[in-house]
Amino acid sequence: MEFPAGAVSAPGGVLASVGLVQAKYCDEIAVRMPPLKEAELLALSSATPVAEHTQTGDDEDGQPLRCMFTILPGDRHKILYEVDAD
């Protein structure tokens, strides 16, 4: 399958478009104080913590397919999870 120049998505997802199926994912969230350079880059006050959110997606055999890493300044984000209980 060819993607248009600059495309960052595909019907059914990029992984599915190349035959990979994500069966599960794991979220890990750690809260910490940022180093000075990171605080400057994110324009944070000296007392503002950040959260590191790492999400790893695995296939049915438990092999990792993708990893997303995000830094969330604590003064601008709320983390909300909604999970079906079935």
Could you explain how this protein is built, in words?
- The protein has 86 residues and is mostly beta strands.
- Helix content is 12%, strand content 33%.
- It contains two helices and three strands.
- It has helices at 14-17, 36-41, and strands spanning 24-32, 50-58, 64-73.
- Strands 1-2-3 form a three-stranded antiparallel beta sheet, with no helix packed on it.
Per the principal axes of the C-alpha atoms, what is the gross shape?
Answer: extended
Strand order of the largest sheet: 1-2-3
Portion of residues in beta strands equals 25-35%
User: How many strands, which pairing sense, and closed or not: the largest β-sheet?
Assistant: 3 strands, antiparallel
> What class would the helix/strand composition place it in?
mainly beta
